[in-house]
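[SOLVED] Predicted holo structure with zinc ion

Edit: marking solved, answer below. Original request kept for reference. I posted the sequence and ligand SMILES and asked for the 3D complex as structure tokens.
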Amino acid sequence: MPMIQTVLGPVPVERLGLILPHEHLFTDLRGADTPGLGEADLDDVQAAMQRHLDAAWAAGITALVECTPAGVGRNPLALKRLAQHTPVAIVAAAGLYRQEFLPRWALAASEAEVEARMLAELNEGIDGSGVRAGFIKLAVSNEGITELEKRDLRAAARAAAQTGAVVASHTSGLLSGAHALEEVEILESAGLPGSRFIWVHTQNSPHLAEHRAVAARGAYLGFDGLSPEREEAFLKLVLDALGAGLGRQILLSHDAGWYRPGEPGGGKVRGYTYLVERFLPRLRERGVDEATIRLMTDENPKRAFGKTR
Ligand SMILES: [Zn+2]
């Protein structure tokens, strides 16, 4: 029975239903060298975020994957605090963000050191917290994948191959389709099959041919920026991918949240219920059946994030 590693421990996938595979609860984009990066009063975090988790649970969401890796304020104890007060399962990320956000230790680290750090985050806990990560999150630069980012991809491939964790990578900019293919190639060269990769922000490429090419390598397509403002664009992306027979590889999420340290009350937080309340009904109106809805929102994320070891 596959399990998903949540911040409170492993949960068998059969106990879960609808999963949001790309969201944020707590993120700090002020830069890796910012004093106090990723630090906040946990009572304040809970005061800001509890109602959004309550609303998610009420909407039928059973798990939320938190996609904040090292360098952008990842805070495992904040995630644990939130998880202790909601039935929504919360999954934390191992890994590193793109080069511009790398913490100082990572600038000088060897590939083996990065791999060891990822393994420790997955197997023991993040930064000594005892809170284990449930997958690996990376990111690559818009202008091109840097040497340090290639190092992190290879390290992640090895850590993922040893643990069963999936690798998700933020891939943005005009070249995102080409970069996603390059990421698959780097992962495969280091021993991880393309089927264990999630192309984060697939919507940044409007080209179905690129979606097909990456999916042909087995990877998941993350349509993960769902919002009312971009409803028609996302409906077209998802319907086109379904029309191309890629339903088994589609993931749907909002990239929403999140508490921002340094801003009063954590700043403006976006909730997690648009998918259920608006987007799925729109898909049904366009003829998408319940089995396909379930495939995209339940079976696919369970296959992606579920581990057998
Ligand atoms: Zn994100």
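OP edit: The two ends are 10 Å apart (CA to CA). Thanks to everyone who chimed in.
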